[in-house]
Design a protein that fits this description.
about 270 residues; alpha/beta; D-Maltodextrin-Binding Protein, domain 2; 3 domains; 8 helices; 10 strands; elongated
Length: about 270
């Protein structure tokens, strides 16, 4: 039978001590790296760009998205520059590495370059609306054989149009949501898709009756967030912006602006924030 000698015990002890020291050193390096990147992100100016959205983000400095960005950046407490450019120029410049961040785009989307997303600052949901006194519809399958009204120029990238066509849903497009609402009430459409805040304002302004809708069953959801490059600085920025957004949501400071954005986004963008 083999009995470990004192030499073997000492050897294992020294090996364990070395492993422990290496692990401690690795943790210390990670910690100091974080501090270095944090200091760099705080001391260096970060440029964030966004594509222009008519009505909610204008190059002139007007729009609710300006207010949201200012609120978030103030909470992050970082020196930053903000540019509003035509949508394609903003995206391509970010992908080419000219700017550190891209604002107000869909989260969770594969892009031409590796990116990381912040927590969403707003979520836009769309529901199926039907005429007053008719059955509420909860999902796209219930639109089989029906006439569905959409708005020309609105973004429907996450609406399953292939399913709608296969099941015989007739898609009709109108220049405005108000036109769709009037067609729905008059019986020329069976359903429309839109967000509750925007349609609610239309009904109130035009003094039209309330439509039927199941608010618990959105057919599409769009999370709007910041995107940063998937590198040490970008990951740190995403973490800091996410923390700021979550804090602003918890305090309630972001909720009013987020609802205002949701009311206006459908009538704002003719190009997709995808």
């Amino acid at each position: 039978m083999f009995y470990p000698s004192k030499f073997h015990h000492r050897r294992r002890y020294h090996e364990a001590v070395i492993v422990k020291k290496v692990r401690s050193l690795a943790k210390l390096l990670v910690y100091w790296s974080g501090l270095v990147f944090a200091a760099a992100a705080h001391s260096q100016s970060v440029t964030i760009v966004a594509g222009e959205y008519k009505g909610v983000l204008e190059s002139s400095g007007e729009g609710v998205l300006w207010d949201i960005h200012r609120l978030v950046v103030k909470q992050v407490d970082i020196d930053s520059d903000f540019k509003v450019l035509p949508m394609r120029r903003a995206r391509h410049g970010f992908y080419a590495g000219h700017w550190q961040g891209l604002f107000a785009i869909f989260a969770g989307v594969d892009r031409p370059v590796p990116v990381v997303y912040s927590a969403p600052f707003a979520t836009v949901k769309r529901h199926i609306f039907t005429a007053p006194g008719t059955q509420k519809l909860h999902n796209l399958n219930q639109l089989a054989g029906k006439r569905l009204g959409l708005v020309l120029g609105h973004v429907y990238s996450r609406l399953d149009k292939d399913l709608l066509r296969l099941q015989g849903t007739e898609i009709q497009t109108s220049p405005t949501q108000l036109t769709n609402v009037r067609m729905l009430i008059s019986g020329r459409l069976d359903a429309i898709v839109g967000n509750a805040y925007g349609i609610g304002e239309l009904l109130s302004d035009a003094e039209l009756p309330l439509l039927e809708v199941d608010m618990g069953s959105p057919v599409t959801e769009y999370d709007f967030a910041y995107a940063f490059h998937d590198d040490p600085q970008g990951r740190l920025l995403a973490e800091r912006f996410s923390s700021a957004i979550k804090e602003l949501k918890q305090s309630g400071e972001l909720s009013v602006l987020a609802k205002q954005f949701e009311r206006g986004i459908d009538s704002a963008a003719k190009s997709s924030p995808e």
